[in-house]
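Q: Joint fold for the lines below.
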Amino acid sequence: MIRVEGLTKVFRRPRTFSGPFGALRTLVTRQHVEKTAVDDVSFEIHEGEVIGYLGPNGAGKSTTIKILTGILTPTSGTVEVNGLVPWRDRSVNARNVGVVFGQRSQLWWDLPLIESLRLVGALYDVPAPRFERSLKKLRDLLGLDEFLDTPVRQLSLGQRMRGDLAAAVLYEPPLLYLDEPTVGLDVVAKEAVREFIVETNGAGRTTVILTTHDLADVEALCKRIILIDHGKVLFDGAIDALVNEPRRLVVTLESEPEEVRGVPRDAEGRYVFEIHDDLPGMIASIAAEHTIRDLSVEEPDLESVIKGIYTR
Amino acid sequence: MAEVFRSLRLYVLLQRASARGALQYRLNTVIGILSGAIWQGTGFAFIWVVMHTFPSLAGWGLAEIAFLYGLRLTAHALAMIPLMSVNDIQWVVRNGEFDRFLLRPLNPLVQLMGNRMGIAQFGDLLVGVTLLAVAGQNAQISWNAWLIAFCFVAIIGGALIEAAFFLALCSLALRMIDTFALRVFVDDVFSKFGSYPMKIFGGVTEWLLTFVLPVAFVAYIPASVVLGKLDTPLALAAPLLGVVLVALAYLVWRRQLDHYQSVGH
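A: Joint structure:
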């Protein structure tokens, strides 16, 4: 469904100077600063997948999404979405994709939500019967009824997000881009958004690309993640493969020797053992040689694994 | 062609929506229209005062200048009522709102135009049409169907000329070049120089305002034809210029759109 190959985007802007006459020098300079936001990224996404597209702030996530949706033209590389080049066939591509930017509403600020939805329906040429059917489904699914007639500017963040989600899927696009759809939401609202994504993805009909900083979203929704940082892909694969590390036994000892059973003392004075099979036996054999002050078992989790990859 | 009709239909839909949004702020709307009318009214009042002392400017009487002024103002209003929200372009680009226009299956320019309705410009239209109606009766014009038709075409041509310069300058904002001050200047040249008989400026200025920034073609040349002061077949082509310039301006817009960089990364 989506094929990205060697995608690179370089932003170029005039160099800014500071110090005396800085503003003037900035104005007349011919020097440019280049920033490579996306650097030779390749991946493929298949129909019906829910992909977590992750990375720290400034990693190049939003730039990738903006290229895939046709907002930006890349510096080099090829992209094919449903057989279309998004920035060239912008208008045709637009009909195939729904987009939600969590940070920014796409609804009409001064109009009641229902009018925004009707305008979206008109822009995408949704025939009236299909519109009504779609709207009814979304009213139930997202609980829109209580604020359907409220101007968007008066909606709470959670309500606004539900409105934005409704606007993005009203015309039933086969592909959905969600850029931080849970940012700033409370626990209940986040849960509602996740349920909506699961429901929309349904029997693998809608492909979803999700960027988020909330890894609970990813664990709940995605089987596969693509991790990027500094514009480069660091990991692309199943979450299971990533979090497939053994549990760990963390021990602190009274005597604090340089090493215990081949494991050196770490900076915090702890000894970290990988647990492979016999945990009680392991603890017993350590306890036989040393006096244990504290002991805990750590499960591998996505957050620490990803933190490990970012800081690598 | 079907796409043109679809765009037009959706533009009307968007514009109606933005009007509904704007009309919630009723006082704003009233103040907007009034201030537009008063602003343009004082402009003409100034001419009136001047004409009180000098009964004729370069051979033009008060009614004739009023006709010229009305023609210019009506064309200006017709250009700006649909394009007013294009004036917001640098803010729309800066706060990332422009992104959403690129995500929808409708020409982004049409969406930008439908974003907000020019309200003060209805005040301009009110004053412009009033001046045209009153001056059209008081100036020595032998009206016939052909002349009335020419008037309509001339107004639209004039509106297109103004619209073309406005659009071309606005489109530079897509590359983060702020042309707001330049636009105010150009608008000022159109209104300050376009509303008087060109002849009073004379020489270089007249030449510049005819061939560089074709202010003369907006109202001065068409008004001269209607008032029987100018009789060359070339003058009748003045309205055509608007069509050509708007087409060029749209090409500039398309070109700038390719350089759009969005905000944030």
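Q: Anything notable?
A: Residues 26-53 of chain B form the longest helix (28 residues). The interface with chain A takes residues 6, 10, 13-14, 17-18, 20-22, 24, 96-97, 99-100, 102-107, 258, 260-262, 264-265 of chain B (CB under 8 Å).
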